[in-house]
Design goal:
By secondary structure, this protein is mainly alpha-helical. It has twelve helices and five strands. The structure holds benzoyl coenzyme A.
């Protein structure tokens, strides 16, 4: 179905036929613009950016490229087409028709999941607010803005569900989504990682590599939901999420490629020498990786969670690729291994699979992340550099779940306080690391030019040249 751009809010949900809902959203829309102006990308108001906009959800329409003045981006509401006779794939309601309305008894849990998902979207825009001022190229600036406008659209996606299906409570939650602020001690965002700073582009690429990947796994689990509108909206969000992870994966690959190039050219792996040459030494990149991986691992929640069990048995949230898993999709008698500390060491023990669903999704995420990290190692190998990146152990630097506060090295060894204190500077970014990375952040906006610390991409966006004018400043 094509989206009707003649309407104030582009949509493929036939908004025009529901005057009450349309009015509620038209009331929320100016508040969204105020929020965007207040905490969205700094200084971007007059820029014309070569952006992808969805004009329909089918293959031809979801990625239309053209220049858009940033505040005029058309944030819309798009759901994937309904699957005829869709059935619930898991939990107590397995085999029953998917729900088109919210069952009363699941209202508050469903609302809570949608609010938590919705809260991450504006949070990430707030976290990335100042990055445009220090972009390493026009190409990267454009990618940042693409990510930002799409996170804004994902907020719209959740706000639509709140307004359409949750009445007054939903409208209040939609307003609160614009009131919380990333990192604000009085009104923080809901989940930990979304209150961290994203102060430089190395952090941004790590965030889009790891934290947007949490998005991929959580959205995939929600795409299985028995509540069909949530399933359809998250399926469409997932198509957009792919580009966000691409930005992270390729951004990091380009940084690593540039450092490796200088290492070979200058025949050195000395961090100080490399820093003096204006590139980011690989151990510093590993420390950033350790930080972002561990903070993101926390986003999956506690290893054992009765919430997760309830969400699954009641059909609200499934597993990653539920449809291809070969089991009974009820898990009442199944078990799953979780980590625990016993007799001074980490071991695994079998726990009820239903309660361990957060852990299972975390493991799916780890598997996917390792594949990405291996890609950089292959590139290092090809360039003749012996350094290898490694994902830290699942127990490293955790703040959520039973491993929180217990000290482990990135290799997974249990440590006492003195051992932790002796190692932490080589495992997590130090203030000196952060200051050094910050010192590299200039602003490069001449088409085809790139900051010294990052290699150009191998190709441009939408088959455009790498030196295409991705952003026009007016
Ligand atoms: N920080 O029973 P537990 C994305 C809370 S990213 C702070 O284990 P549960 C994106 C938890 O809320 C995807 N608090 O939790 C990426 C609970 O609090 P209450 C986002 C945390 O419910 C980049 C308590 O601890 N989507 O889209 O099983 C850019 C007990 O914990 C944290 C979703 O997350 C934390 N890290 O699981 C833009 C999907 N972890 O209720 C966007 C929706 C846990 O007792 N959310 N807590 O006060 C969920 O499915 C679940 O809420 C969670 C938590 C998996 C997050």
């Amino acid at each position: 179905m094509t989206i009707d751009y003649a309407q104030k809010i582009p949509n493929n949900v036939d908004l025009g036929s529901d005057r009450t809902l349309q009015r509620a959203l038209e009331h929320w829309q100016p508040q969204f613009f105020n929020w965007w102006n207040e905490v969205g990308p700094e200084g971007s108001h007059d820029y014309e950016v070569y952006l992808r906009t969805a004009i329909s959800v089918d293959a031809d329409g979801w990625a239309q490229f053209g220049y858009v003045r940033m505040p005029e981006y058309r944030w819309g509401i798009f759901l994937n087409p309904a699957e005829p006779d869709r059935r619930i794939a898991f939990g107590n309601h397995k085999g029953q028709p998917a729900w088109q309305e919210v069952p009363g008894e699941y209202r508050s849990n469903l609302r809570r999941i949608i609010v938590t998902q919705g809260d991450t979207e504006p949070a990430s825009v707030e976290q990335q607010r100042y990055l445009g001022l220090t972009c390493p190229s026009l190409y990267d600036l454009r990618n940042l803005f693409q990510v930002n406008v799409e996170e804004g659209r994902h907020l719209w996606a959740m706000v639509y569900l709140l307004h359409r299906y949750f009445g007054r409570d939903g409208r209040e939650e939609a307003e609160a989504l614009l009131e919380r602020r990333s990192g604000d001690p009085d009104h923080p965002r809901i989940l930990g990682a979304f209150n961290e700073k994203t102060p430089d582009w190395l952090s941004f690429f790590m965030f889009t590599f790891f934290t947007d990947r949490d998005g991929k796994f959580q959205l995939s689990a929600l795409a299985e939901s028995a509540f069909d509108p949530l399933s359809r909206t998250t399926k469409f969000m997932l198509t957009e999420e792919g580009h966000h992870m691409f930005v992270g994966r390729n951004g990091l690959r380009r940084i690593i490629e540039r450092t490796a190039q200088i290492m070979i050219q200058e025949k050195t792996d000395d961090p100080q020498q490399l820093r003096a040459l204006g590139v980011i030494d690989l151990p510093t990149i590993q420390r950033y990786l350790n930080f972002h991986a561990s903070v993101t691992l926390d986003l999956f929640g506690s290893d054992l969670s009765s919430n997760a069990a309830t969400f699954y048995t009641t059909g609200l949230k499934g597993r990653f690729r539920e449809g291809v898993i070969k089991d009974d999709h009820e898990l009442t008698h199944a078990s799953y291994p979780i980590l625990e500390v016993a007799d001074g060491r980490v071991t695994t023990r079998e726990a009820p699979a239903l309660n361990a669903l957060n852990e299972r999704l975390r493991d799916d995420f780890i598997h996917d992340s390792i594949a990405g990290v291996n890609g950089w190692n292959t590139a290092l190998e090809k360039s003749g550099v012996t350094f290898r990146f490694k994902l830290p152990h699942k127990a490293f630097n955790r703040q959520i779940g039973p491993l929180a506060g217990i000290k482990f090295s990135p290799a997974g060894e249990l440590l006492n306080d003195a051992q932790w204190a002796a190692g932490v500077r080589s495992w997590l970014p130090t203030s000196e690391d952060r200051a050094f990375v910050q010192s590299l952040m200039g602003r490069v906006v001449e088409p085809g030019k790139f900051a010294n610390w990052i290699a150009p991409p191998s190709s441009g966006i939408n088959s455009q040249a790498v030196d295409f004018e991705y952003v026009r400043f007016n």
